[in-house]
Design brief:
Length: about 190
């Protein structure tokens, strides 16, 4: 099972989610993927993902993009699961959390939400300074990410499998090239 955790303001309608779902359906694996709209409240998003993890009869693989990559990291470490993190959010010294604060609109739905200091604190509480199981992770990053500095991810996921590509953007422009490898990493090939 792949549990896909989308990014901040994103949703199951994202191009990455849809591409992976389509490829899995082509391979007869459509029942082996879960992705639902995550709450913009971090603790609620984690609770929904943990409920899905609990329903799995075998250990799932987490796939997360951006803030979803941060969530996937937290959950993979907590439950000793494998995770593919795509241009993940990595808190770091000098990070300005005020960039998240305020009113936001979801990308794929006309829903707005307020992200406040309580939510920033929830994210901060999930951060562990070092990975206990870097061997469980595969980092996919593009150096051209205009939203997050890929070097923070390279440092954070030291010891993990890493694919760092020149150019690209925050949406990870070469995602389609890695679909089969992600499915294989999840043990579904």
């Amino acid at each position: 099972m792949i549990i896909y955790l989308h990014g901040f303001r994103s949703g199951p309608q994202s191009l990455k989610v849809q591409a992976l779902a389509h490829r899995m359906a082509e391979r007869g694996l459509q029942q082996e993927m879960w992705c639902e709209q995550l709450s913009p409240v971090p603790d609620e998003a984690i609770a929904l993902a943990e409920a899905q993890i609990a329903r799995c009869t075998t250990p799932p693989t987490l796939v997360g993009s951006s803030l979803g990559g941060f969530y996937a990291t937290h959950l993979a470490e907590k439950h000793n699961l494998r995770a593919v993190v795509v241009n993940p959010f990595v808190p770091h010294a000098g990070f300005d959390s005020s960039l998240f604060l305020g009113e936001h609109t979801m990308i794929y739905a006309p829903q707005t939400f307020i992200f406040d200091t309580r939510h920033v604190a929830q994210v901060a509480a999930m951060f562990a300074p070092a990975l206990r199981h870097p061997e469980n992770f595969w980092l996919l990053a593009e150096e051209g990410d205009e939203t997050l500095d890929y070097r923070h991810a390279v440092s954070r996921y030291a010891g993990a499998r890493q694919t760092v590509l020149p150019g690209g953007e925050h949406g990870f422009s070469r995602w389609d090239d890695y679909l089969d490898a992600v499915i294989a990493f999840a043990g579904l090939a």
